[in-house]
Specification:
Two copies of one chain form a homodimer.
Chain A: E1 4-8, H1 21-28, E2 38-42, H2 43-49, E3 53-55, H3 63-72, H4 76-85, E4 86-93, E5 96-101, E6 106-108, E7 122-124, H5 130-140, E8 146-154, E9 161-169, E10 175-176, E11 192-193, H6 195-205, E12 215-219
Parallel strand pairs in A: 2-8
Antiparallel strand pairs in A: 1-12, 2-12, 3-7, 4-5, 5-6, 8-9, 10-11
Chain lengths: 246, 246
């Protein structure tokens, strides 16, 4: 095994709603792109291509958004967009809203983000169904590589953000080792490697945050790549009732 | 930039208390190991070399350990070891104890682990001061690479474990971008990349969990490597009072 290699592909042009993202990626992919490769794609270009953007100007905040915005000194229209994307606001503190999205992700501002938006006053949302987006991208690329759609999430207990997998296709997102023996033949403590999250984190190290290089090619993960698209990144979402920290 | 490359070094022999871990690593390191390289070292070999192991047989459980063990059907001696390593038990549910360690890490069983222990009945603890351990390793390697000491932690909200940095030396563990402009010249949302955690996660993808390859060489992170040992992984620990989820 030669290990893991991560390399950012050349920048994409500005992605706008309706663009064929697979074709844009194909144009910058290396000619030897293979089915065992993994492409990690920053969710923003996916959201933009899918029209998952809103303009601040078009939003009329409701009562709850106005109250939260006043309390946390935020733009009430932004807060309304966050509430629209949220199944539940878990914490609101010091200007930060930690929300569970309708998909079941727990993250700041329900993933609604102004940074790296194309137009002033534009909000980028998370893709509506990131696993479906990943499957579509995979189908649209002739080499049929595995796809991970990534975003940066904060963590409780630890500072800083790491990239995690919102969606995936053709990658074993969770490699469950429970019941397998350790190197000394004893049963392992419950151990399941969050492969897709680790792949997203590795990809993030291969590009600078402010560069326009949303796509990173990962090689050396062939053992986790599957012919079927599989369940995507859904196995990484912890069900509410299994969660000790709400 | 040629991206990021991660490669597991050859297996180490069984590490025992008192062993010179830097010398054991030096013996498997490539001859071109450089100061800009990062070595990610699984904490277990560090703990073993430092004598941070206990034998189950030597432990007499106290009252609280006996009660918790009965409630969660665990070995009371193991529970006593977990309590000894814990500043606080945050949750105890279904056989899992989520604890804050004396260092301030929040993890299952306060990091006390039987898997990959050398002897039956041996418990491996976290290093007492992982940043200090990292500095010592760095000083002991002639090429003076950056060091990350890693362990696998579970996450609330997401299933599966990812490797995180317990300790570090010579690596900018947290790359704080807040206030810097995004690719479109607008201020970024609060963004700080947990570089050392992402490095630990990337390294984990380069080795199999059950292999005896505790050391992974990362190349391509030179921009985060510092001449000074720096504050280690401490900047990644979220202070209790900044934590919204306790």
């Amino acid at each position: 095994v030669d290990g893991l290699h991560a390399r950012a592909l050349e920048p994409l042009p500005d992605v706008r709603p309706g663009d064929d993202l697979a074709a844009l990626i194909e144009a910058v992919a290396p000619s030897d792109l293979a089915g065992g490769d993994v492409l990690v794609v920053a969710h923003k270009v996916v959201s933009k291509a899918e029209g998952r953007v809103r303009s601040l100007e078009s939003i009329t905040p409701g009562e709850r958004a106005l109250a939260l915005a006043a309390e946390h000194r935020k733009d009430a229209r932004l807060v309304q967009a966050v509430l629209d994307e949220s199944a539940e606001v878990l914490r609101a503190h010091d200007g930060v809203l930690i929300c569970e999205t309708h998909h079941g992700f727990v993250c700041a501002n329900a993933g609604v983000d102004q940074s790296n938006a194309t137009e002033p006053g534009e909000l980028v949302l998370l893709p509506a169904n990131p696993d479906e987006s990943a499957r579509r991208l995979r189908a649209g690329l002739p080499a049929h590589p595995a796809i991970v759609i990534a975003d940066s999430f904060g963590r409780p207990w630890r500072l800083g953000q790491t990239d995690v997998a919102l969606g995936a296709a053709g990658l074993m997102a969770l490699d469950d080792w429970s019941g397998r023996p350790d190197a000394y033949g004893r049963e392992l403590r419950v151990t399941a490697i969050a492969v897709a999250d680790a792949a997203a984190a590795a990809a993030d190290l291969a590009r600078a945050k402010d560069s326009r290089r949303p796509v990173v090619l990962l090689r050396g993960l062939e053992r986790y790549v599957t012919e079927e698209d599989g369940p995507g990144a859904a196995p990484l979402r912890r069900a509410r009732e299994q969660d000790l920290f709400r």
